[in-house]
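Forum > Structural Biology > Help requests

Title: Can anyone predict the 3D structure of M18 family aminopeptidase?

Hi all, first post here. I have the sequence for M18 family aminopeptidase but no way to get a structure on my laptop. I'd be grateful if someone could post the structure tokens.
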Amino acid sequence: CMGKSIAMFRIGKEPLENGMNILGAHIDSPRIDVKQNPLYENEELAYLDTHYYGGIKKYQWVTLPLALHGVIVKTDGTVQEVSIGEK
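Reply #1:
Sure, ran it for you. Structure tokens for M18 family aminopeptidase below:
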């Protein structure tokens, strides 16, 4: 699931034989996803190929504060989190 899923559990006081409650939910947060091979150039500028997601109109993005979040996994296996534009 590309690291976009989360699962949480709470162990109850009753034995499992007495049953359990399961709750499922999802967040359809508006966001712009950067595609897997996103970098391209045009007129001496670098661009990122993206896909908007979450039920927002294209014209609405210009009025929202945006940040870029990601993860860089280096060849030695170390992971570096990236956050640009977050206050």
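The chain has no helices and four strands. The CA atoms of residues 74 and 85 lie 23 Å apart.
Shout if anything looks off.
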